[in-house]
Amino acid sequence: MVPEKKAWITTAIGLLIFLPLGMIPFSSMYKEISVAGGTAAWPDFSEVHAHYSLNGEWLLFPDNSKEGVLQEVPAVAWERGTGMYTLELYFPESAAGIPMEMYSRNIGSSGDVLFNGELIGSFGVYGESSEEAVPSAQSKVLLFTPEAGWNTIDILVSNFTHPRAGLWERIIVSRSPILSLKLQRRQAFSLLMFGNLLFIALFHLIMALLNKQRDYFAFFSGGVLFAALGNIVQAPYAVYLLLPDIDYILLKRSQFFLYYLAAAFIFKAFQREQKPMKISVFFDLFMAFCLVLVLLTALLPFSTAYSMSAPFYPLAVAVSFIMVGYRFKLLFSYTSHGSLQWAVPRLIGDFILIFGIIHDAHATLTGRYDVITMPLAIYAYSVLYTLLLAASFVKALKRNERAKQEIILSADRERQRLRSDIHDGVGQLTHGLEYLAAGALQKYPGQAELIKIRDAAKEINLDIRRILNGLSPAVLEHAGLEGAITELADEIRLNGKTTVTVEMDTAADVGSSQIGLQIYYIVKESISNALRHADPDIIRIVLDRTDSRIRVFVENDGVPTRPKADLCRRGHGIDIIRYRVNLLEGVLYAGSQGGGKFCVAAEIPVRKSRTKSSKRDYTACKEFL
Which distant-in-sequence residues (6+ apart) come within 8 Å of 290 by Cβ? Predict the structure, then answer.
């Protein structure tokens, strides 16, 4: 079966699974006190940490009428107007005088809460007309102290703003301070999500400025930013901590157009990531639709804007599944090529987002907001995508580091090959030329031309020997690492200006092995840096060995004291040394020291040796070693 057909069949199966799954209500986290006919009794006061939901038939007096009707709670009681819910709640003798708490998450209404006729708290400003009432979405925990026997809870509610209002949520009652602590945890978690999403948005914005694929990162950054702001107004546990006087209508309008923009930008980011796509037109149309909704939400009356939000959810679900279908197509294509390319974890993130959209769409249509999943889904989606991006970035850095190390190894192999070719080719020819010239001079002594040829051949052979020694020192093979470094020091001493000292333990001589070759080049590059960038009088080279490490120390006195930030700005010598040390899985320190000295020190892991550890005074780099 072709990948496209498999992808869309799999997506259709996912749609059939997730649509009913998103409509399943979450089970209540609270024990239930059943309310029947406007009365209820506290079931058991021995459970100190229990919190109860007062569900069932409360007595409702709509629009200040004298006759009450039974109204199921939680439910949407009416669209506009005023009313009073009443409940007679019986407490046993053991509950008298114990502080209790009441909590109801309010959306769109305003009201006063009375316990035994005494006002214990308000949400918004209760009023019997639209001019007097001030709606609010602030969550509050109200404190009361019950008496033994029957107690009365009266909740006066007014709604002149929201198309669907009344007593929206379940009423929760518990001992103090259980609900207060629960609300504080929700507020802290909302602020934590808000801060994390702002950081993620900033991270993607920086990536947009530094990356060639800037369209994707820019749109994703915008989507996460709008989602962060939308989350904190969608579940307004914490927004009133940041903006205590925020207007309710502004809050609700912000919720709509922030989520519109978040969805538009996130889906657009997917489109820019996967370009070109045959299905790009769907994402373009959805973004245009969201931008139109943003404009209408800002301009039209709130009740109209609220009604216009209805088509957003099904369209968002449809576009989500188009995205998932394309992701499955990539997944099946990658599978055929043997590489998943993070497709599976990205699909997990997509389905988390889809579940949040479906669940909250169903909650909006049914008027039930017991658990809001959209903020959590967006948060999980953004964090997962950012972690995947970070993992890809780290993987790319490792590939880049491996490539640099492979370049070093390839260069070393190429030097070996070039040394062999020169030695076996040109070197043999020039040696032969020198031999023939010497033989001819024996036969025809005193011939000026033959003498010139012989001397030129000798000079060429010396130059070739120096070149071959620079490519890969022959002495390393027959005299070991100590002999090669001693010869290197002798060459430096020939300039007559620099004194070179070598201190080396026999145990540190690992011969011409890969470790020995890399240590030789580390020392050589350190000396070359000193001669190139300074005018040292003394270069000190120390190599010793502990049970499991070879320590390399090269110090010169030709660099004046200066900030470490100024070090190694010229050339790439230290970078090359660092690559060689990383190749051997060692650690490196390079920097200026006190007294106008510059030090390069490295520790290279090797197999454990039975030799005793040496102790040397490294002076400036002692803190490193």
Answer: 260, 261, 263, 264, 312
C-alpha 283/C-alpha 268 separation (Å) is: 6
What is the mean pLDDT of each successive set of 10 residues along the chain, which is 625 residues long? 68 72 65 91 78 89 84 70 90 89 81 93 88 86 93 91 64 90 88 91 89 84 91 80 86 88 90 75 90 91 82 86 81 57 78 82 66 83 85 76 69 66 66 72 72 75 69 68 82 78 77 76 86 83 82 80 45 77 83 79 75 54 54
Q: How many other C-beta atoms can be found within 10 angstroms of the C-beta atom of residue 105?
A: 23
pLDDT of res. 491: 79
Q: What type of residue sits at position 96?
A: A
- Secondary structure element (H or E) that encloses residue 487, with its range: helix 475-493
Q: Round to whole Å and give the CA distance between 556 and 492.
A: 13
Helices (H), strands (E): how many in the chain?
15, 16
Spell out the alpha helix ranges (H) of 300-425: 302-308, 312-337, 343-366, 374-424
Q: 3-class SS at 167?
A: coil
Q: Cα separation of 285 and 264, whole Å?
A: 10
Q: Are the beta carbons of 487 and 542 closer than 8 angstroms?
A: no
Q: Which amino acid would we find at residue 316? A: A
Q: At what angle do helices 312-337 and 248-273 cross, to 10 degrees?
A: 20
pLDDT digits (tens, 9 = 90+) for 382-391: 888 888 888 8
H/E segment holding residue 280: helix 280-299
